[in-house]
Amino acid sequence: MKVQILSRKLIAPSSPNPPNLQNLKISCFDQLAPPTYVPRIFYYPVSGEDHGGNNADRSKKVEKSLAETLTLFYPLGGRYIEENLSIECNDEGAEYLEAQVSDSLSQLLGREEFKTEMRWRLVPQVFRPENNPPLTIQFNRFECGGVATGSCAAHRIADAYTVGTFINTRAAACRMGIGKVHRCPGFPSGSLFPPKNIPATTSVDDLISAGAIKKHGEKKREMPT
């Protein structure tokens, strides 16, 4: 399977982020998360007599819905600043790639090797969030007309719930328009659980033991100095 990258661009939010939301601290939990990206792939096999003739239009719709959804999920359009433990929500945008795959999606899904290392060619290759977009999406077109979208989100910036909500919101915006999306996410974890001046090897259990955070039902103690 050969995957050829056709284009690469940054998709900025469709509306600028207001000044009061330009800087967002990560939480102490996110501070301890590994500086990696979490990949996801969604497959869309060709159906009926549609042989991918509208894939160019589909890509444009994905781009448009991505720009619109980034206005709600504005940290994913910013940049992570390691030394400040914060996200500069500066509207630089998410990265968007278009790729051509020299094979049939239905045939690839039936191959045993595709279930392991081969499928990761459909996902953007990003390794650390510093100075890189927190979110990257790759729109893969197959010869049969099928499509696969691969995405990578920085684990330190977006947990599984946030990414899942983003995917559902973007899909709804793509189908119905952003005006039909009524859920407006919040990002309060950095203020509720602010980052700590702690060694990089510290674990969540270490924070609980030190009293920096509390288990459910326990009162928070002051961080010892």
Brief characterization of the structure:
This is ACETYL-COA-BENZYLALCOHOL ACETYLTRANSFERASE-LIKE. The protein is built from six helices and eight strands, in the order E-E-H-E-H-E-E-E-H-E-E-H-H-H. The chain has 225 residues and is of the alpha+beta class.
Write the layout of secondary structure elements.
Elements: E1 3-11, E2 23-25, H1 28-32, E3 37-44, H2 55-70, E4 79-81, E5 86-88, E6 94-101, H3 105-109, E7 135-142, E8 147-154, H4 160-176, H5 189-192, H6 204-210
GO molecular function, one term: acyltransferase activity
Keywords: Acyltransferase, Transferase
Family: Belongs to the plant acyltransferase family.
List keywords for this structure.
225 residues, alpha+beta, 6 helices, 8 strands, globular
Describe the structure.
This protein is α+β, with helices and mostly antiparallel strands and 225 residues long. The chain contains 6 helices and 8 strands, in the order ββαβαβββαββααα. Helix content is 24%, strand content 22%. The chain has a 5-stranded mixed β-sheet with strand order 1-6-7-8-3. A 3-stranded antiparallel β-sheet has the order 2-5-4. A hairpin with a 4-residue loop joins β7 and β8 (147-154). α2 (55-70) packs across α4 (160-176). It is globular, with a radius of gyration of 20 Å. The termini are far apart. Mean pLDDT is 82; it is low at 216-225.
